[in-house]
Amino acid sequence: WGSVRRIDMEPATCGDPDCQADHGMTGVSVPDDVVIRVAAGVEGAAALARAETFAGRLSQMAARAAAL
């Protein structure tokens, strides 16, 4: 879905072990997982079945979109 991202940041460095300069920051921005949790014991078996159907359809649509 692209709406959730995680950014891992750290101080940038150079190869000189004696360098005292501030090289700023460096980092990586990566998509983060979206988690949907449904428990049959809490929401009921019908809700779990609907969630499984949703997950299957979402997976199919994502595969189709990736193939375009």
| Helix segment tally | 2
Q: What's the alpha carbon Rg, rounded to whole Å?
A: 21 Å
How many angstroms separate the termini? 16 Å
The best one-word shape is elongated
Low-confidence stretches: none
Kindly name the structural category.
alpha+beta
Total beta-strand segments: 2
How helix-rich are the residues, as a percent range?
Answer: 25-40%
Overall pLDDT level: 89
Strand order of the largest sheet: 1-2
Order of helices and strands: EEHH
Strand content: 15-25%
Short account of what is shown:
With 68 residues, this protein is α+β, with helices and mostly antiparallel strands. It has helices at 40-43, 45-67; strands at residues 5-11, 25-31.
Structure description:
The protein is an alpha+beta fold and 68 residues long. It is 40% helix and 21% strand. It has helices at residues 40-43, 45-67; strands at residues 5-11, 25-31. It has a two-stranded antiparallel ribbon with strand order 1-2. It starts with a strand and ends with a helix. The mean pLDDT is 89.
Per-chain topology:
Layout: E1 5-11, E2 25-31, H1 40-43, H2 45-67
Antiparallel strand pairs: 1-2
Keywords summarizing the entry:
alpha+beta, 2 helices, 2 strands
